[in-house]
Amino acid sequence: MNTSDEYGQKLVELIERSARIDTLVLKSRQAAENVKQELEELWAKQRETTQILHNFENFGSNAWENIGCGG
To answer: What is the b/e burial string over 42-70, where b = at least 16 CB atoms within 10 angstroms of the residue's CB?
Structure first.
């Protein structure tokens, strides 16, 4: 093998590795975006559930006060 053949082979390897790196970077960005979106959805549901629980606490306290006052 001469030097130009070796150079050409190494250049092809470099291009292939660069393409694999680009593919992995894209996949990781997509995965990160999916995780971010899922987290945002879960945080929204958590806030909603927390609000519902606070409403139950307030309702429960008021209900006992009403019962204590005859109803």
So the answer is: eeeeeeeeeeeeeeeeeeeeeeeeeeeee
Look at residues 43, 42, 46, 65 and name the one whose alpha carbon lies nearest to residue 54: 46
pTM: 0.60
Q: Which amino acid is it at 38?
A: E
Q: For residue 59, give the amino acid letter.
A: F
Closest CA to 31 of 42, 39, 43, 20: 39
- Segment 45-70, tens digit of pLDDT: 999 999 999 988 887 766 656 655 65
